[in-house]
Amino acid sequence: MKAVPGKNTRPTTDKVKESIFQMLGPFFEGGKCLDLFAGSGSLGFEAISRGMDTCLFIDKHPQAIQTIKENIKLLKLENNTEVYRADAFRALHAASKRGLRFDLIFLDPPYNKISYEKLLDTIEKLNLLADGGLVYCEYDPSDKLPEKHLYSTIKQANYGGTIGITIFQKTGGNVND
Q: Residue 7 falls within a domain, yes or no?
């Protein structure tokens, strides 16, 4: 699989990726995945390889989009994927308008550039996460993630003081209910 050229993306190492999927559950039984801030798409591709049916890849950087498209061809996943170049919040609203709900959402934005509070609130408000669905958050461990009333924290880990990971699960209901 190809990586995004340059230094604008922070690829998740294979060691961390293996740990992530041990936390998420090593295999899935179908479902829809959203890889927001996708970079090369490695998290979404890994989720498909472990049983997710489809993945929607979003990134706003042209080089990332080009890399994802090349990786889709390389992995022969044209029928399991969609790719859009868009701002994260615009993409979330577009997904909501299409009536999409995801079983797994990857959030790995550039560190200290995007508010997790705003991202999680938007996902809640637009009801984009299926009941029982998971949200994977990767962040600078010096950041504190917000507590969310519809999500329970099911896993937290810190990798070498450089990567913090929290996995939330939707426990039910909708903000609008």
A: no
Q: What is the C-alpha to C-alpha distance for residues 168 and 151, in angstroms, rounded to an integer?
A: 6
The number of folded domains in the chain is: 1
Q: Which residue has the higher pLDDT, 151 or 65?
A: 65
- Asked if residue 3 has pLDDT above 60, the reply is yes
Domain membership flag for residue 162: yes
Q: What is the pTM of this model?
A: 0.88
Terminal alpha carbon distance of the chain:
42
CA distances from 80 to 18, 72, 135 (A): 22, 9, 20
Check residue 2 and report its DSSP letter: P
3-state secondary structure of 158: strand
Residues 90-125 have pLDDT tens digits of 999 999 999 999 999 999 998 778 888 899 999 999
Q: Which domain holds residue 110?
A: 14-170
